[in-house]
Amino acid sequence: MYAAYAVRHKGRSHCAAYLYGGTMNNYREEAITLMTEHSIKPSYQRIQVLSYLLCNHTHPTADIIYKALSDNIPAISRATVYNTLRLFASKGIVSTFSTDNIEMRYDILTESHGHFVCTKCKKIYNFPYTYQNKYMGLDEFQIEEEEITLRGTCSSCSS
Length: 159
Ligand SMILES: [Zn+2]
Ligand SMILES: [Zn+2]
Prior knowledge:
Blueprint (H helix, E strand, L loop, with lengths): L1 H7 L14 H15 L6 H12 L6 H9 L7 H13 L4 E3 L7 E3 L6 E5 L5 E4 L21 E4 L2 H4 L1
Parallel strand pairs: 3-5
Antiparallel strand pairs: 1-2, 3-4
Helix pairs in contact: 2-3, 3-5, 4-5
One zinc ion (ZN) binds next to loops.
């Protein structure tokens, strides 16, 4: 699953230019398809929010998305962005997690994966992992959610 995703999204870890040019249209169609597949009406503002997430695999908070979009779409409101993200999460289009238990972060990658938080550049990296009986003493427990967060120095910062 992860490998397939990585191939599909190769070279898309960041595309800041999307708001200003043709790049945005590349995501428009994908956003509409994703929403249609999940029975969500693709309104203009929802398309913008989802395109941003498809375009920026940076685990943004709702506030970061709102600020990025409001520069170009003055009509968009903070509440719209929050509600849209909540809708996407409830339909399983995006996954959510928090690295600091304060702000929710949104992730277009919904397959099971871990996060590596660089304490120097603050970037959050995705990495695949495989579940192999790594939890002990939980035989009678049912795991419904799993969050793996590692912290340290990323390869760009340590070189
Ligand atoms: Zn770093
Ligand atoms: Zn992630």
